[in-house]
Amino acid sequence: MSRLRRYNLWVVLAVIVLLSLLPLPAFWVAQLNYTGLFALTCLGLVLLTGVAGLTSFGQAAFVGIGAYTAAWCSLNLGWPPTVTLILGVTLTGVSAWVIGRITLRLSGHYLPLATIAWGLSLYYLMGNLEALGKYDGLIGLNSLTLFGHEIGQGRGFFVVSWSLLWVATVALTFLLNSRPGRAIRALKDGRQMAEAMGVDTFGYKVTIFVIAAVLASVAGWLMAYYQRAVNPSAFGLKWGIEYLFMVVVGGAGSLWGAWLGAGVVRVLDEQLQAWLPQLLGMSGSFESIVFGVMLVLILKYRPDGLWSWVQQGLGKTERTRDWDDADVLTQRTKPAMGDVVLDVQKIRKSFGGLVAVNDISFQVRAGQIVGLIGPNGAGKSTTFNLITGTLPLSAGEVYFGGQPVHGLHARDIAKRGLMRTFQHVKMIPEMSVLDNVAIGAHSRSKGEVFSAILRRNRGEEKSIMAEAERQLKRVGLGDWIHEQAANLPMGQQRLMEIARALCADPTLLLLDEPAAGLRYLEKQELMRVLRQLQSEGMSILLVEHDMDLVMDVCETIVVMEFGTYLTQGTPDEVQADPKVRAAYLGTEH
User: Fold this and answer.
1) pLDDT by residue (tens digit) across 435-470?
2) What average pLDDT does the structure give for the chain?
3) Within 13 A of 522's CA, how many CA atoms are on the CB side?
4) Percent of the chain with pLDDT over 70
5) Distant-in-sequence, close-in-space partners of 154: CB < 8 Å, separation ≥ 6
6) How confident is the model at residue 278 (pLDDT cuts 50, 70, 90)?
């Protein structure tokens, strides 16, 4: 984490303390209290929707579970708030885990539709249970009491709610700047890449879904004691949409956007209800029209939300370089030169009646660069996907390091030391080059969510950063480590992908058209890197259309045509083979 970010966290805490001491009117204290409750709920939505790209309209239902648990247990069992909080968080976490395991397997528009469905189900469940007061709800709660002190509904509640909001923001900041945080950031646009780096993407989806639900539950617990009453109207689909609206307005990609969006929407909603009837001379819900127009304008002109303006003022932040004394990550035992690393035996892939890859067999030995070539549509990339587990085999076997890997998930194959790049560069554009490359070390480290939140992973983080920097220097990108990945030229982006794969300390590196779109000098740099890697003992399987590059760096070349094996041999043998000339030129003469 950068020094500036740490400084900002403490500045925000100082502002919270200052606000609690200022002689603010009761009206504004109430607005701040509601803003804190809404922002706490929106934090989870930022993590879920803004960072991971999982749109959810059901966050309000989890607020309701926390609120109803607190209300029912307080009124019927006389339990203290601390106990109702623990129970509410537990019930919410279990519910979210069950719902997440079912709905998060959906994608596209089916996922938000599913969140609407279970959100409505929980809402109507709350409204129809006699024990929960049906649609009248539960009333008569005492105000919040902690450790024998009554908090009330004024400044004391502000201190408690905003302190919890600050702690949650700090915890999520630590999380997002860690090993699991980089995996979470990859869920939005880089799921396939993350799986190829050894990340259990579905497991992380469920985890952040539970975290978002727990934050909403804490907000519901606070809301129950603040309002001293609970009814289902505050937990329906309308509020699920409103929370999402706050996140979009503030900035879905930033934790501070949750704070800003909750504050702007809360204050505007309250003020517009007073101003608009006076301005228009008639009563009505005109604030909804204003909010609709505002949302359209923000999506049009500021799609990253209002917080992006603030970020521009704060300027660019760089990760603090504190890993000079880091321990070295565990390294794999490499095979002896000449040993068979990859053994592909009669693999086949059928899509209905189309056979894309038909009984392909070849081997890669330790220290070799093997080229896999063929005309467009020959099935080269499909073969890559079959070897790495991205696509399941229809038939055949793949052995890596003497062990069968056919039938394994891509992440499990990656953990064994088989890493790849992609035909079209896959990266997290808004992350730094260093953080993008650090994703490659995921399978070499073990720090998980709770250790990241509690910052018990600092030693491991230093080791990961040191390894990422070493690999970037290895491919000639040492001067680009703090640059935003999207700003790199195409040649550097492809080298960054190679550095990311190298960060996993692979036994075999699969490169899918690494020279595509590169200029002459960039290709020369790529060839230098490949020769250097081979001199260091790296085994490489290369798919490429640039024949000059293939003939220059490869020792053995396997040729495919229309999904079938055509021939293989040295570059000279392949160039002289009439079958290869016929495949590329359409004639043997």
Assistant:
1) 999 999 998 888 789 999 988 888 999 999 999 999
2) 89
3) 17
4) 97
5) 26, 29
6) confident
State the Cα–Cα distance between residues 68 and 217, nearest whole angstrom. Answer: 10
Q: Convert the pLDDT of each residue in 164-174 to its tens digit.
A: 999 999 999 99
Whether the CB-CB separation of 558 and 510 falls below 8 Å is answered with no
Please report where in the chains the tokens 């803004």 appear, as a residue. 50
Whether 589 shows a pLDDT value over 50: the answer reads no
DSSP-derived 3-state class of residue 127 = helix
- Would strands 369-373 and 539-543 be described as parallel, antiparallel, or unpaired? parallel
SS3 category, 326: coil
Q: What angle do CA 286, 290, 294 make, to 5 degrees?
A: 165
How do residues 481-522 score in pLDDT, each as one tens digit?
Answer: 999 999 998 889 999 999 999 999 999 999 988 888 888 888
Here the tokens at position 313 are 């003022």
> Which residues 6+ apart lie within 8 Å of 424 measured at CB?
none
In this structure, are residues 158 and 36 in contact, taking their beta carbons and an 8 Å threshold? yes
Q: How far apart are the first and last CA of the chain?
A: 63
Query: Cα separation of 262 and 42, whole Å?
Result: 7
Asked if 160 contacts 221 with a C-beta cutoff of 8 angstroms, the reply is: no
Q: 86 — phi, psi (to 5°)?
A: -60, -45
How do residues 205-238 score in pLDDT, each as one tens digit? 999 999 999 999 999 999 999 999 999 988 989 8
CB atoms within 10 A of CB 337: 11
Give yes or no for a contact between 387 and 477, defined as CB atoms under 8 angstroms apart: no
**The tokens 């929407």 sit on which residue?**
265
The string of DSSP codes covering 358-408 is EEEEEEEETT-EEEEE-STTSSHHHHHHHHHTSS--SEEEEEETTEE-TTS
Q: Are residues 505 and 513 in contact, defined by beta-carbon separation less than 8 angstroms? A: no
Q: Say if strands 145-146 and 149-150 run parallel, antiparallel, or are unpaired.
A: antiparallel
Q: Which has the closest alpha carbon to 158: 246, 273, 306, 40?
A: 40
- What is the tens place of the pLDDT at every residue in 539-587? 999 998 888 888 889 989 998 888 888 888 998 888 888 888 887 766 5
Better-scored residue on pLDDT, 9 or 439: 439
Nearest-angstrom CA–CA distance, 268 and 195: 43
For 444-480, the DSSP string reads G----HHHHHTT--HHHHHHHHHHHHHHHHHTT-GGG
CA angle 104, 195, 202 (to 5 degrees): 20
Query: How many angstroms separate the CA atoms of 545 and 244, rounded?
Result: 46
- Tokens representing residue 85 in the block: 């909080």
- Residue whose C-alpha is closest to residue 61's, from 208, 234, 245: 234
Please, which residues have CB within 8 angstroms of residue 468's CB and are 6 or more apart in sequence? 434, 435, 437, 438, 440, 441, 481, 499, 503
